[in-house]
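Hi C.,

You asked whether I'd gotten around to modeling the 237-residue construct. I have! Everything is below, sequence then structure, no commentary in between.
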Amino acid sequence: MKETFMDHIKSDIESVKKRDPAARSTLEILLTYSGLHAVLMYRVAHKLYQYRFYTAARCISQFARFITGIEIHPGAKIGKGFFIDHGSGVVIGETAEIGDNCLVYQGVTLGGTGKDKGKRHPTLGNNVMVGAGARVLGPFKVGDNSKIAAGAVVLDEVPPNCTAVGVPARIVRRGGKKVDVCGELDQIHVPDPVAQELCAHLARIEKLEKQINRLEISELGKKLNNSNGNKGDNDKE
């Protein structure tokens, strides 16, 4: 059965209730949640966009941006139960597609790289979570039930049931199992990619220093042997 306009709005409100413990009532959500305001105005703008009232649709989306700080292009396709938590600074491009029951935090960009034509923006599957400040850039898919860590920059496809972390993002969990050394994704305890790179370089420097020390010891041993050999020859003379 096809979802109606009102079905989507009801599911958006229910999504806020389920996911935000601070939400106390439907009235409070309707009056105070800027993320919901942006999504509701997107729903109206998207309908107009589908009927080719492009200018009217863009005017509504720009008004939503002005009052909420959230920019959703009316051409984007967004499923039911979409929740933008905190909201400010979110940007969703024209050809972006978002499945059902997705969660996006503040500062997220679902954008393009400037190199593609036609389909330029990412596709999120169902039940995808994108952490605060993350950038998902390009016409690829983030699979169902996947998570993007706060601050990650995703430039390639993310398979279903995976967790992507870092700059550029890499898969650290797949199907609930660790791919790399990384704790549970909780928006706070996320590995620092810069620190990890520094650690890797320090480990390499330490390894090279040990090799140099071994070579120096070996060279010193050869010099001592040669010196003792020359001394022995001089004694014989």
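If it helps when you're writing up: The radius of gyration is 28 Å.

Thanks,
B.
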